[in-house]
Q: What sequence folds into this?
């Protein structure tokens, strides 16, 4: 064993080290004394131990404006009375603290004249779920109650007025599907520690643009730390961190057009989408019936929620992007374009279009129109003409055109819950084990059968026909403004492709759609507006069991004819026919748009 | 055996026993919420304390001198465990600090610190090692430097830093010439000042992690972020400060019970602030006295040790415990930046408990075999 006996000469070094350690511990002891004894004495008469009140200052959520700067989603301050539970904490089981809290609530109620709304269960729930946050006793109190509490409530421990911002939607029933709504962000109970180090913002987007752009709109919470004693006296502020604003959004939406769309729908259940065919801007996106998004802030009560959720009219559904319907005859312009692109002669091919037509074993009864070409067939919406056209070219070119114009997939508009609809192409047929017959081809030709689209998809198709074949992804957000900036940054216009339609085919289809509106015997004549030259197409789509005769009714249109600035799709659920039900709606909308264009000098 | 029991250091053992009892009580308090302790941490800690006592007894009655020849093996085992943890360790927030064996986590850096002390003590205590030579001085730093780098790589710089006072003070006790030691410490101070200047003026290019930067800046009171990185420091200071003379009473600390002290750190790194809030100046001073007793008895064992190996072993362990206690308490009361250094015998954590108890057992072993 190689071991050296202790060198006595180095023993003083160890004593020196011991001395150093003792000194170090003494430094700690003196610091402790200063922190625990001397500083407490600083607050002279207060023998009570102070605690810390943490007031959170929620981030200021960014606003949402329409294209003309009209504010669609705004913030408003709300004053609430809150109880800071740690200050009324009693030793022992929580039930004792709750007793005390109820006592305090009673005193506040007496001073302010408010009726208590918080009960024992509510306090329990708060203790379990949101202990670190103040317990809100009354939300959105009036100025009277506020004045009384600040005058007479000094000696009530643990109670304070608590300010938060709430969201308001001034145009709510008309914007609620698009904007969505916010709800109170609950602290993440699973990840408790984060809540203590970082304040969660008060509001979180729950639906619509509020949800999609939540991260961008959300501000960053700040906070204040105050030292107070048990009587509620504030000894001072230890820290203050100002909350930060979120970014703002400017939408492509034009509130004037949106309100026109609401007027046009006139109480019908359905949807309106108005696009700018030159860039895909969504100028209006309306779904009816609507709901008041303000009722969701900060949270909706169960009864109201059930009422909305169980309403057979489905007010929560954003029909403009999530409503899926057969397109009916509004699909015919696409059939014409597909046939004419495949075979240019199809434009001038004349088919007899009788009232009775036999497909295989099946006999179809429809309206007869005699010998018609493509332009006339569109004007009259002649079914048999399109049966024959589709049978001549086969279903594949039509399905292919349908896919390339963007049906059967989401338009990627920034709104949530968008549906893709159905295009019964080869892949779909295989997945759904559907055998394809001539009957199916004829159904496809008139937008019936398996086809299903959303109103925004039809508006996009209309815009593409209006601008001669350019495909734009619809966009809702025109520009965003970063927190603290004054200038907006423009979003990109999203042109995604160009259709291979021949010029002649586009002209023929557009002319046909022109006649639908402008000719005395067009199916859409009821939409005609004195002085405005425009084009459109009606559609009446049967659904469900044939005997019940349930129909969704459509109209698409673009205006003005020569220089399209608006592309519109209107859907009315359970109407009579496209011309009779939706025609007058389209008329109201077009009248308004005509006035707007005249006023803004946009008619050449 | 009865002679052994008479020679046993009962003063130190009593201090340890009291600390272990307090540890159980205040871990229960830190874990306490909604009328009961939620995590059952106290039970687990008591099991670890019992295992620790077993190790303590085993180490105390084992003749430490018999371990002398195997010090290189102990050192190698420490290194291997540190290398392995980097590769097969459990990843928590991107740090690889723990092994996980069926629910039990083991932190090899704690064992490694003891291994370094053991090896340095044995090596410096070897008659063949000439402590007067500069080579010895350099080699000692290399021996401690390798585990230092491995622990810093985990990354756990706070744990690694504890090795620094250990190696310096061991060399001091072993009798190396004072001049190189003092030069080195001077250089260290200069390096620290450079680092702080770097942080202040060129924060972008500084190689530290963001959280380390913000902790240092918060400590220097330059970067005020009371709701972010400064939160724990401020909360801990308030918890300690609100204790007053005698505290708010057991299980009544509002900072602690209401969770202002983050619940994940209250039973571990911030256990001292729980004790301080609930028992006040009286309780926190008592704790400090107990630690002073333990550390001083270690150094006393070093003075009386029969041989240099025993002396350096006891002194090294004394320094280890002193460093942990000092850094932890200084951090709790805001005198030092926040580093994840636990409080020996009090903080919740199995590996650390077993390591410290084994170390104290070794000191007892040195004391039992003292000169007089």
A:
């Amino acid at each position: 064993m190689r071991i050296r006996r202790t060198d006595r000469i180095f023993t003083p070094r160890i004593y020196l080290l011991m001395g150093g350690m003792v000194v170090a511990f003494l430094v700690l002891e003196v610091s402790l004394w200063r922190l625990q004894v001397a500083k407490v004495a600083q607050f002279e008469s207060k023998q009570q131990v102070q605690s810390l009140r943490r007031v959170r200052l929620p981030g200021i959520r960014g606003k949402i404006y329409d294209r003309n700067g009209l504010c669609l989603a705004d913030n408003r301050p709300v004053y609430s009375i809150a109880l800071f539970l740690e200050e009324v904490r009693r030793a022992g089981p929580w039930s004792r603290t709750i007793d005390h809290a109820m006592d305090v609530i009673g005193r506040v109620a007496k001073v302010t004249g408010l009726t208590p709304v918080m009960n024992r269960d509510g306090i329990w729930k708060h203790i379990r779920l949101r202990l670190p946050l103040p317990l809100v006793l009354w939300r959105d109190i009036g100025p009277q109650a506020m004045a009384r509490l600040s005058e007479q409530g000094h000696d009530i421990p643990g109670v304070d007025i608590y300010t938060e911002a709430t969201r308001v939607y001034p145009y709510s029933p008309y914007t609620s599907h698009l904007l969505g709504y916010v709800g109170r962000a609950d602290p993440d109970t699973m990840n408790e520690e984060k809540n203590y180090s970082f304040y969660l913002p008060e509001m979180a987007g729950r639906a619509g643009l509020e949800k999609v752009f939540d991260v961008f709109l959300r501000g960053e919470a700040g906070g204040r730390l105050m030292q107070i004693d048990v009587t509620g006296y504030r000894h001072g502020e230890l820290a203050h961190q100002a909350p930060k604003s979120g970014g703002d959004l400017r939408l492509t939406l034009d509130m004037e057009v949106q309100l026109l769309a609401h007027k046009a729908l006139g109480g019908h259940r359905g949807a309106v989408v108005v696009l700018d065919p030159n860039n895909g801007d969504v100028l209006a996106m309306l779904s009816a019936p609507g709901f008041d998004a303000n009722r969701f802030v900060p949270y909706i009560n169960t009864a109201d929620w059930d009422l909305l959720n169980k309403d057979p009219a489905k007010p929560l559904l954003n029909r403009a992007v999530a409503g899926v319907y057969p397109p009916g005859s509004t699909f015919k312009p696409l059939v014409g374009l597909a046939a004419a692109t495949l075979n240019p002669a199809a434009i001038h091919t004349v088919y007899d279009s009788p009232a009775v037509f036999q497909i295989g074993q099946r006999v179809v009864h429809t309206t007869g129109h005699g010998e018609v070409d493509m332009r006339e067939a569109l004007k009259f919406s002649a079914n048999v003409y399109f049966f024959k056209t589709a049978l001549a070219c086969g279903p594949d070119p039509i399905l292919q055109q349908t896919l390339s114009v963007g049906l059967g997939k989401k338009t990627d508009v920034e709104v949530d819950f968008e549906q893709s609809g159905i295009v019964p192409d080869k892949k779909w047929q295989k997945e759904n084990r559907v055998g394809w017959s001539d009957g199916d081809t004829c159904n496809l030709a008139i937008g019936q059968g398996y086809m299903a689209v959303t109103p925004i998809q039809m508006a996009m198709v209309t815009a593409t026909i209006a601008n001669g074949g350019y495909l734009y992804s619809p966009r809702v957000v025109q520009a965003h403004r970063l927190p603290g900036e004054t200038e907006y940054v423009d979003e990109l216009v999203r042109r995604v492709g160009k259709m291979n339609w021949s010029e002649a085919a586009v002209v023929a289809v557009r002319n046909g759609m022109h006649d639908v509106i402008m000719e005395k015997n067009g199916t859409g004549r009821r939409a005609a507006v004195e002085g405005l030259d425009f084009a459109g197409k009606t559609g009446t789509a049967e659904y469900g069991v044939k005997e019940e005769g349930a129909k969704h009714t459509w109209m698409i249109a673009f205006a003005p004819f020569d220089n399209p600035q608006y592309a519109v799709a209107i859907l009315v659920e359970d109407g009579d026919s496209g011309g009779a039900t939706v025609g007058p709606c389209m008329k109201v909308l077009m009248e308004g748009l005509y006035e707007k264009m005249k006023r803004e000098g946009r008619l050449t | 055996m009865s002679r052994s029991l008479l020679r046993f250091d009962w003063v130190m053992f009593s201090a340890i026993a009291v600390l272990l009892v307090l540890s159980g009580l205040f871990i229960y308090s830190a874990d306490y919420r909604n009328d009961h302790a939620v995590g059952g941490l106290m039970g687990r800690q008591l099991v670890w304390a019992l295992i620790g006592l077993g190790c303590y007894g085993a180490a105390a009655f084992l003749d430490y001198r018999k371990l002398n020849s195997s010090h290189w093996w102990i050192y190698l085992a420490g290194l291997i465990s540190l290398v392995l943890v980097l590769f097969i360790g459990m990843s928590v927030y991107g740090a690889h600090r723990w092994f996980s064996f069926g629910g039990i986590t083991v932190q090899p850096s704690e064992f490694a610190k003891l291994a370094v002390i053991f090896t340095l003590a044995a090596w410096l205590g070897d008659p063949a090692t000439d402590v007067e030579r500069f080579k010895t001085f350099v080699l000692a730093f290399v021996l401690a430097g390798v585990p230092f780098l491995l622990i810093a790589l985990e990354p756990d710089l706070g744990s690694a830093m504890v090795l620094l006072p250990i190696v310096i003070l061991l060399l001091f006790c072993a009798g190396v010439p004072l001049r190189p030691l003092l030069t080195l410490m001077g250089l260290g101070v200069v390096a620290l000042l450079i680092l702080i200047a770097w942080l202040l003026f060129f924060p972008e290019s500084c190689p530290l992690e963001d959280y380390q930067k913000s902790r240092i800046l918060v400590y220097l009171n330059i970067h005020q972020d009371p709701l972010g990185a400064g939160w724990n420091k401020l909360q801990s200071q308030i918890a300690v400060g609100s204790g007053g003379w005698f505290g708010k009473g057991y299980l009544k600390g509002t900072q602690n019970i209401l969770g202002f002290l983050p619940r994940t750190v209250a039973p571990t790194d911030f256990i001292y602030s729980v004790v301080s809030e609930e028992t006040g100046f009286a309780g926190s001073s008592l704790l400090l006295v107990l630690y002073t007793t333990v550390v001083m008895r270690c150094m006393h064992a070093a003075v009386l040790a029969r041989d240099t190996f025993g002396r350096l072993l006891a002194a090294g362990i004394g320094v280890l415990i002193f460093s942990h206690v000092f850094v932890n308490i200084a951090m709790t009361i805001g005198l030092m930046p926040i580093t994840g250094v636990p409080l020996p015998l009090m903080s919740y954590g199995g590996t650390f408990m077993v390591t410290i108890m084994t170390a104290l057992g070794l000191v007892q072993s040195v004391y039992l075999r003292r000169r007089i």
